[in-house]
Amino acid sequence: MCTLYLDAFSGISGDMFIGALLDLGLDFNILKSEIKKLNLSGYKLQYEKKNKNSIFGSDFDVILENGQKDCGISEHHKHHGRSFLDIKNLIENSDLSDYVKTHSVDVFHEIAKAEGIVHNKPIEEIHFHEVGAIDSIIDIVGSFIGLEQLNITEVISSPLTDGCGRIKIAHGEMPVPVPAVMQIRVNSSIPVHQRLDIETELVTPTGIALVKNIVSKFYPLPDDMEILKIGYGFGKKDIKSLNALRVILLKKK
Q1: What is the number of other CB atoms lying within 10 angstroms of the CB of residue 227?
Q2: 220: helix, coil or strand?
Q3: Which of 108, 83, 111 is nearest to 179 (CA)?
Q4: What span, in angstroms and rounded, lies between the C-alpha atoms of 101 and 89?
Q5: pLDDT, tens only, 16-25
Q6: Rounded-to-integer distance, Cα 204 and Cα 178, Å
Q7: What digits encode the pLDDT tens for the residues 88-116?
Q8: Which residues pair with 203 in a beta bridge?
Q9: For residue 136, which of 240, 209, 221, 239 has the smallest C-alpha distance?
Protein backbone atom coordinates (compact mmCIF):
# COMPACT_ATOMS: atom_id res chain seq x y z
CA MET A 1 0.00 0.00 0.00
CA CYS A 2 1.72 3.13 -1.27
CA THR A 3 1.08 6.78 -2.05
CA LEU A 4 1.70 8.16 -5.53
CA TYR A 5 2.72 11.79 -6.05
CA LEU A 6 2.10 13.38 -9.44
CA ASP A 7 4.63 16.06 -10.35
CA ALA A 8 2.72 17.59 -13.25
CA PHE A 9 5.29 20.23 -14.21
CA SER A 10 4.49 19.70 -17.90
CA GLY A 11 0.83 18.77 -17.82
CA ILE A 12 -0.87 15.39 -17.89
CA SER A 13 -2.55 13.15 -20.45
CA GLY A 14 -3.65 9.53 -20.40
CA ASP A 15 -0.64 8.20 -22.30
CA MET A 16 1.77 10.19 -20.11
CA PHE A 17 0.18 8.69 -16.99
CA ILE A 18 0.41 5.11 -18.26
CA GLY A 19 3.98 5.71 -19.43
CA ALA A 20 4.90 6.96 -15.96
CA LEU A 21 3.31 3.92 -14.30
CA LEU A 22 5.23 1.62 -16.66
CA ASP A 23 8.42 3.46 -15.78
CA LEU A 24 7.57 2.96 -12.13
CA GLY A 25 7.35 -0.80 -12.58
CA LEU A 26 3.95 -1.69 -14.02
CA ASP A 27 4.35 -4.97 -15.91
CA PHE A 28 3.64 -4.28 -19.60
CA ASN A 29 2.55 -7.87 -20.23
CA ILE A 30 0.01 -7.67 -17.41
CA LEU A 31 -1.26 -4.36 -18.79
CA LYS A 32 -1.74 -5.91 -22.24
CA SER A 33 -3.42 -8.98 -20.78
CA GLU A 34 -5.87 -6.93 -18.73
CA ILE A 35 -6.74 -4.60 -21.61
CA LYS A 36 -7.57 -7.66 -23.73
CA LYS A 37 -10.53 -8.17 -21.40
CA LEU A 38 -12.18 -5.30 -23.27
CA ASN A 39 -13.97 -6.22 -26.47
CA LEU A 40 -11.66 -4.08 -28.62
CA SER A 41 -9.66 -4.82 -31.73
CA GLY A 42 -7.68 -2.94 -34.33
CA TYR A 43 -4.85 -1.73 -32.15
CA LYS A 44 -1.50 -2.65 -30.66
CA LEU A 45 0.28 -1.24 -27.64
CA GLN A 46 3.81 0.10 -27.86
CA TYR A 47 6.11 0.79 -24.93
CA GLU A 48 9.76 1.74 -24.99
CA LYS A 49 12.37 3.17 -22.68
CA LYS A 50 14.15 6.18 -24.11
CA ASN A 51 16.11 9.31 -23.39
CA LYS A 52 14.37 12.66 -23.80
CA ASN A 53 16.01 15.95 -22.89
CA SER A 54 18.75 13.84 -21.25
CA ILE A 55 16.15 12.18 -18.96
CA PHE A 56 15.60 8.41 -19.13
CA GLY A 57 11.94 7.44 -18.99
CA SER A 58 9.10 5.59 -20.72
CA ASP A 59 7.00 6.28 -23.80
CA PHE A 60 3.59 4.64 -24.24
CA ASP A 61 1.59 4.60 -27.46
CA VAL A 62 -1.60 3.09 -28.77
CA ILE A 63 -1.13 2.36 -32.47
CA LEU A 64 -4.25 1.79 -34.54
CA GLU A 65 -4.56 -0.59 -37.50
CA ASN A 66 -3.95 2.28 -39.93
CA GLY A 67 -0.65 2.97 -38.21
CA GLN A 68 -1.83 6.16 -36.53
CA LYS A 69 -0.42 6.82 -33.09
CA ASP A 70 -2.12 8.40 -30.12
CA CYS A 71 -0.04 11.54 -30.54
CA GLY A 72 -1.91 14.02 -28.42
CA ILE A 73 -2.98 16.32 -31.27
CA SER A 74 -5.52 13.72 -32.36
CA GLU A 75 -7.53 14.64 -29.28
CA HIS A 76 -10.54 16.85 -30.11
CA HIS A 77 -10.38 15.88 -33.80
CA LYS A 78 -12.87 13.05 -33.94
CA HIS A 79 -16.35 13.79 -35.28
CA HIS A 80 -17.65 10.30 -34.75
CA GLY A 81 -17.09 7.56 -32.25
CA ARG A 82 -18.85 5.81 -29.42
CA SER A 83 -21.43 7.38 -27.18
CA PHE A 84 -20.95 7.50 -23.43
CA LEU A 85 -23.45 4.66 -23.04
CA ASP A 86 -21.54 2.58 -25.62
CA ILE A 87 -18.32 3.03 -23.67
CA LYS A 88 -20.02 2.43 -20.32
CA ASN A 89 -21.47 -0.86 -21.57
CA LEU A 90 -18.16 -1.90 -23.11
CA ILE A 91 -16.37 -1.47 -19.79
CA GLU A 92 -19.08 -2.85 -17.50
CA ASN A 93 -19.55 -5.99 -19.63
CA SER A 94 -15.84 -6.83 -19.48
CA ASP A 95 -14.07 -9.15 -17.03
CA LEU A 96 -11.99 -6.33 -15.56
CA SER A 97 -12.02 -5.83 -11.78
CA ASP A 98 -14.81 -3.83 -10.18
CA TYR A 99 -12.25 -1.19 -9.18
CA VAL A 100 -11.09 -0.66 -12.77
CA LYS A 101 -14.63 -0.70 -14.18
CA THR A 102 -16.10 1.70 -11.63
CA HIS A 103 -13.35 4.31 -11.83
CA SER A 104 -13.05 4.11 -15.62
CA VAL A 105 -16.78 4.70 -16.09
CA ASP A 106 -16.63 7.57 -13.60
CA VAL A 107 -13.89 9.29 -15.62
CA PHE A 108 -15.82 8.90 -18.87
CA HIS A 109 -18.93 10.26 -17.16
CA GLU A 110 -16.96 13.29 -15.97
CA ILE A 111 -15.82 14.05 -19.51
CA ALA A 112 -19.29 13.39 -20.96
CA LYS A 113 -20.84 15.75 -18.44
CA ALA A 114 -18.32 18.47 -19.31
CA GLU A 115 -18.75 18.01 -23.06
CA GLY A 116 -22.53 18.08 -22.61
CA ILE A 117 -22.39 21.44 -20.86
CA VAL A 118 -19.94 22.89 -23.39
CA HIS A 119 -22.08 21.77 -26.36
CA ASN A 120 -25.48 22.14 -24.62
CA LYS A 121 -26.41 18.49 -25.10
CA PRO A 122 -27.56 15.74 -22.72
CA ILE A 123 -24.97 13.12 -21.81
CA GLU A 124 -26.86 10.49 -23.83
CA GLU A 125 -26.23 12.47 -27.03
CA ILE A 126 -22.51 12.98 -26.49
CA HIS A 127 -20.33 11.17 -29.00
CA PHE A 128 -16.82 11.77 -27.82
CA HIS A 129 -14.51 13.82 -30.00
CA GLU A 130 -11.55 12.97 -27.80
CA VAL A 131 -12.33 9.83 -25.88
CA GLY A 132 -14.54 7.81 -28.21
CA ALA A 133 -11.62 6.22 -30.00
CA ILE A 134 -9.81 3.06 -29.03
CA ASP A 135 -6.67 4.85 -27.90
CA SER A 136 -8.42 6.94 -25.26
CA ILE A 137 -10.50 4.05 -23.94
CA ILE A 138 -7.22 2.22 -23.41
CA ASP A 139 -5.62 5.28 -21.81
CA ILE A 140 -8.34 5.58 -19.17
CA VAL A 141 -8.89 1.88 -18.46
CA GLY A 142 -5.13 1.24 -18.54
CA SER A 143 -4.54 3.96 -15.96
CA PHE A 144 -6.70 2.17 -13.39
CA ILE A 145 -5.22 -1.20 -14.28
CA GLY A 146 -1.84 0.33 -13.46
CA LEU A 147 -2.93 1.84 -10.16
CA GLU A 148 -4.45 -1.47 -9.10
CA GLN A 149 -1.45 -3.56 -10.15
CA LEU A 150 0.97 -1.26 -8.32
CA ASN A 151 -1.22 -1.39 -5.19
CA ILE A 152 -1.45 2.40 -4.97
CA THR A 153 -4.02 3.42 -2.39
CA GLU A 154 -3.62 7.21 -2.39
CA VAL A 155 -2.71 9.77 -5.07
CA ILE A 156 -1.64 13.33 -4.32
CA SER A 157 -0.42 15.93 -6.79
CA SER A 158 1.35 19.17 -7.46
CA PRO A 159 -0.64 21.90 -9.22
CA LEU A 160 -1.06 21.07 -12.91
CA THR A 161 0.79 23.03 -15.57
CA ASP A 162 -0.93 23.93 -18.84
CA GLY A 163 0.11 25.99 -21.83
CA CYS A 164 -1.68 28.93 -23.36
CA GLY A 165 -2.77 30.31 -26.72
CA ARG A 166 -4.87 28.29 -29.15
CA ILE A 167 -4.83 24.86 -30.77
CA LYS A 168 -6.27 23.96 -34.16
CA ILE A 169 -9.04 21.36 -34.31
CA ALA A 170 -11.59 20.26 -36.88
CA HIS A 171 -13.99 23.02 -35.78
CA GLY A 172 -11.34 25.74 -36.04
CA GLU A 173 -9.26 27.16 -33.22
CA MET A 174 -9.80 26.40 -29.55
CA PRO A 175 -8.42 28.38 -26.59
CA VAL A 176 -6.05 26.75 -24.12
CA PRO A 177 -7.05 25.53 -21.58
CA VAL A 178 -9.65 23.91 -23.82
CA PRO A 179 -13.35 24.26 -22.88
CA ALA A 180 -13.75 20.69 -21.61
CA VAL A 181 -10.74 21.09 -19.31
CA MET A 182 -12.15 24.35 -17.96
CA GLN A 183 -15.56 22.77 -17.40
CA ILE A 184 -14.10 19.81 -15.51
CA ARG A 185 -12.44 22.32 -13.17
CA VAL A 186 -15.82 23.81 -12.20
CA ASN A 187 -16.60 23.14 -8.51
CA SER A 188 -13.25 21.44 -8.03
CA SER A 189 -10.11 22.39 -6.15
CA ILE A 190 -7.75 21.47 -8.99
CA PRO A 191 -5.07 24.18 -9.28
CA VAL A 192 -3.78 24.83 -12.80
CA HIS A 193 -0.87 27.15 -13.58
CA GLN A 194 -0.44 28.40 -17.14
CA ARG A 195 2.95 28.80 -18.80
CA LEU A 196 2.70 31.79 -21.09
CA ASP A 197 5.86 30.73 -22.95
CA ILE A 198 4.28 27.46 -24.17
CA GLU A 199 1.56 27.97 -26.76
CA THR A 200 -0.06 24.56 -26.83
CA GLU A 201 -2.23 22.26 -24.72
CA LEU A 202 -0.44 20.36 -21.93
CA VAL A 203 -3.45 19.28 -19.84
CA THR A 204 -5.96 17.19 -21.81
CA PRO A 205 -9.57 16.46 -20.84
CA THR A 206 -8.59 12.85 -20.17
CA GLY A 207 -5.69 13.97 -18.00
CA ILE A 208 -7.65 16.37 -15.82
CA ALA A 209 -10.60 13.97 -15.54
CA LEU A 210 -8.20 11.31 -14.22
CA VAL A 211 -6.79 13.82 -11.75
CA LYS A 212 -10.26 14.81 -10.55
CA ASN A 213 -11.10 11.14 -9.97
CA ILE A 214 -7.94 9.94 -8.23
CA VAL A 215 -6.20 12.86 -6.51
CA SER A 216 -7.14 13.52 -2.88
CA LYS A 217 -4.91 16.55 -2.17
CA PHE A 218 -2.79 19.12 -3.99
CA TYR A 219 0.40 20.31 -2.34
CA PRO A 220 4.21 20.19 -2.66
CA LEU A 221 6.05 16.90 -2.33
CA PRO A 222 5.62 15.79 1.31
CA ASP A 223 8.80 15.93 3.40
CA ASP A 224 7.53 13.40 5.94
CA MET A 225 7.44 10.49 3.49
CA GLU A 226 10.17 8.26 2.08
CA ILE A 227 10.73 8.23 -1.68
CA LEU A 228 10.75 4.65 -2.98
CA LYS A 229 10.95 5.13 -6.74
CA ILE A 230 10.54 7.75 -9.47
CA GLY A 231 9.09 7.29 -12.96
CA TYR A 232 8.81 9.50 -16.05
CA GLY A 233 6.08 9.19 -18.67
CA PHE A 234 6.86 11.14 -21.82
CA GLY A 235 4.34 13.30 -23.65
CA LYS A 236 4.23 13.94 -27.37
CA LYS A 237 4.39 17.74 -27.37
CA ASP A 238 7.34 19.33 -29.13
CA ILE A 239 8.16 22.08 -26.67
CA LYS A 240 11.47 23.58 -25.59
CA SER A 241 11.40 21.99 -22.15
CA LEU A 242 10.84 18.39 -21.07
CA ASN A 243 7.30 17.21 -21.82
CA ALA A 244 6.83 14.50 -19.23
CA LEU A 245 4.84 13.53 -16.17
CA ARG A 246 6.98 12.61 -13.18
CA VAL A 247 5.46 10.22 -10.65
CA ILE A 248 6.97 9.50 -7.26
CA LEU A 249 6.17 6.44 -5.17
CA LEU A 250 6.07 7.24 -1.45
CA LYS A 251 5.57 5.55 1.89
CA LYS A 252 5.35 6.87 5.42
CA LYS A 253 8.67 7.05 7.27
Answers
A1: 12
A2: coil
A3: 111
A4: 10
A5: 999 999 999 9
A6: 8
A7: 999 999 999 999 999 999 999 999 999 99
A8: 12
A9: 209
Enumerate the β-bridge partners of residue 63.
44, 69
Q: How far is CA 79 from CA 72, 76, 82, 128, 165, in A?
A: 16, 8, 10, 8, 23
**253 or 158: which leads in pLDDT:** 158
The β-bridge relationship of strands 2-7 and 244-252 is antiparallel
Distance, CA of 141 to CA of 37 (rounded, Å)? 11
CB 58 within 8 A of CB 18: no
CB 90 within 8 A of CB 38: yes
**HEC per residue, 56-94:** EEEEEEEEECCCCECCCCCCCCCCCCCEHHHHHHHHHCC
Distances 2 to 115, 132, 223, 244 between C-alpha atoms, Å: 33, 32, 15, 22
